[in-house]
């Protein structure tokens, strides 16, 4: 594993800071914002310093998210294989979670200095590709034969880890380097500020006086492989991935439900997947942002799962700040450190009990830590939990679905050739709903609030559900190359013309790439598996691959996959002017319903 955060530039430094109760949250130093008094969890290096250490030409266009991602990936590969040469003969996938991606570069250049290269680096898939291309085998060829990007806001990195594990289990790859990266940007600092959930003091998760979160940044990645593969090459196994759960709260675009339905389901699914009972969990690394809503909702969900016997738990966000898309991977590393070193990080800043929250761990004695649950929750109620366990030889989880992937057929969708397992059936297809028909599926109040892309995406998906007869699908997965680009442009225009305090909160909450998938879940009251892929022209293929895994593993009986993108004339003209080829030159919306063959 590899990690860089506000409390350290590598795994060892992070461990020492956790053990010594040393927070990295401090006033802004590196981000070029007018809010210099804001408390944030910044990585304690400039871009130039990272470029120097990584031997990168600092005159090239590198976003801070990319640099952080390269830094943490470099450590992960080095600790697992000594160096990239150790992966020369492996099938290796890089699975990355991010939301901000290259926004820090874009917001500096907007509007007069935007180039095709900046736009190419801006999107989530571009960030993943840039990190992946940094690493080469001994013969100078690409180290990773698959690169995948998930973008589900603050649960992105944990979902990337889950996807990497599933790919290894299914035999799609031998090794997966999976996690996430996120840098602070003016865009998302002011977005969270507009929601009025930033604390002017250091955050205090689960404390009665808590006022909100401190934003952070960082990156972390795990190297995942089967037990058999690891032992065959003499690797030191740090922990076992025992189980995972992903569910949608389907309640609100930012707030969580009072009963924490999504969190409850995610934790329950993870326990079932791991074949563990609630009493087997010794520690929960909680999502614990420090907001009034999240902490009480998560506490209620924990009570629903564990009743009156909740394990020790703490949030580590007072150490690092909330690193948004990267948070789940950073905290997965901390969960493994808890297992390996048999310690539990304290919940920094907690002093006053809150009647709506459990009391977190503040030090003292504890029994051996053998099973850790790690929670990561996001905008739209995209909630994920994983369980990591102390490793014991021949007790690691094994897959039983490999044989289901042996036979494929090829179909063509949106001009792309897609491999589809023979047991999976494309049950129904719905093309984009015309503008005049949108109000047949979405209420006028909602049509006024949503961007054109979101309206079209929801109407098309709802029509697919109605026409297929599957009114509430088990799985919802969205594919998007660029996300809600017009909402993002509106925010950039506001920042440029009116200053940092002018951001409209509704625009920010709907600008995340997973908006279409989570809004659809809210419309359908669908609490099932929910994910979003954002990897350029490969987004649809990656979304369908995930849907097939859900079906073939028995986790779902049907899966709704949607593809939604929008472009602006300005975007296309900039790309064409410099001979870049955008994935889509016109808007696109389509919905596919997949089932298993009878």
- Inertia-based shape: globular
Classification by helices and strands: alpha/beta
Biggest beta sheet attributes: 5 strands, mixed
Unreliable stretches covering 5 or more consecutive residues: none
Task: Give a written overview of the molecule.
This protein is an alpha/beta fold and 598 residues long. Helix content is 35%, strand content 19%. It is built from 20 helices and 19 strands. The strands form 5 sheets. It has a 5-stranded mixed β-sheet with strand order 1-7-6-4-5, sandwiched between helices. Strands 8-12-11-9-10 form a 5-stranded mixed β-sheet. Strands 15-19-18-16-17 form a 5-stranded mixed β-sheet, sandwiched between helices. The model has no long low-confidence stretch (mean pLDDT 93).
Write the layout of secondary structure elements.
Elements: E1 2-4, H1 11-19, E2 26-27, E3 39-40, H2 47-54, H3 64-81, E4 92-97, H4 103-109, H5 116-122, H6 124-134, E5 146-150, H7 156-169, E6 175-182, H8 186-194, E7 218-225, H9 227-232, E8 239-248, H10 261-274, E9 283-285, H11 292-306, E10 312-314, H12 317-320, H13 327-341, E11 371-377, E12 382-390, E13 408-413, E14 416-421, E15 424-431, H14 444-449, H15 452-468, E16 475-479, H16 485-498, H17 505-509, H18 515-524, E17 529-533, H19 539-552, E18 558-565, H20 569-577, E19 588-596
Parallel strand pairs: 4-5, 4-6, 9-10, 9-11, 16-17, 16-18
Antiparallel strand pairs: 1-7, 2-3, 6-7, 8-12, 11-12, 13-14, 15-19, 18-19
Helix pairs in contact: 2-3, 3-6, 4-5, 7-13, 10-11, 15-18
